[in-house]
Amino acid sequence: MPSGLRGAIGQLLIGSCPGTTIPVELRSLAREFGLGGIILFTRNIEAPEQVAELACDAQSLGGELPLWVSVDQEGGRVARLRAPFTEWPPMAALGRSGSVALASRFASALAAELKAVGVTLDYAPVLDIHTNPDNPVIGDRALAGDAETVGRLGRAIIRGLQESGVAACGKHFPGHGDTSVDSHLDLPVVEHPPDRIRRVECVPFREAIAEHVAFMMTAHLLVPSLDERKPATLSRRIVFDLLRDELGFEGVILSDDLEMKAIAATVAVPDAAVQAIAAGCDGLLICGGNIDVQAAALEALVHAVEDERIPYGRVEDALARQRRAKERFLAAPVLAARPAARRIAGWDAHRRIAEEMARYL
Known about the structure:
Number of helices: 14
Radius of gyration: 19 Å
Structural class: alpha/beta
Distance between the termini: 55 Å
Shape: globular
């Protein structure tokens, strides 16, 4: 194994912690392996000032490269930052408005509140197309039921976030819109042929690529027409051949949470981590807050490189993509401040945008 890989492999992990402060176990993991970033959930959040302090403390875990401080802040039912932060309507409201200008104003306001508390990566926008009314996990999280609207408004959200200094992440590739199973609970199956997936589901992701989106997140679902055995997150045919090679995405490919049952019910988290990186993912989400699970995943990656189950060049490429994204968005440190955190969260101007969006529900 090349010297120094053990101390860098953690750049491929966006980890999680169980509470509102950084535990000693995560500090220890960061010292041994490095750490790419953290993801915040409701369990990590008490108030704007506390989030700002947590984000600042997370940066103390970084070495040469700063950490991503990330969150799922879509609007509607998937929003970790609640009042006094602005409570945004679900993204279906933007789809019904059809307004690129409103989507841009929403994204800029959202970015301002995220930056005020030190968040630098938002897992938004959802680029799934809501084509199945029985879909239990996407629903009104989707912008619309047609590819053109999702792509057009998705681009506006990406542009608004990224021009304001927050990295955006399109999700969930290759499209979670036409499923009837929640991947948090089981493995969905998408039965469409490849030509339909390229013609419909891939359209918003192509638009996101054209907008230079920083991240793409994979979906935990099986698409038998593309790969009969492996779910998308673990499939080289989908992650590398389709997203990286055919669609030409040059940013960071990130797995969805490897502890979701769609994957974890049949593949242990350390094994899934190895398979995801081998398939072409450049980063991993492990979201349950168990530091031992996160450390085991990193150990598994180190051993997989030593055993040549993952070529060293694959890890080098993933590390380089992570570095480029950080140089793009984190070159100037995001310094969250307690007064700004409280002042900007839930700003009147932002609430007026949310009220305008809500009129379309």
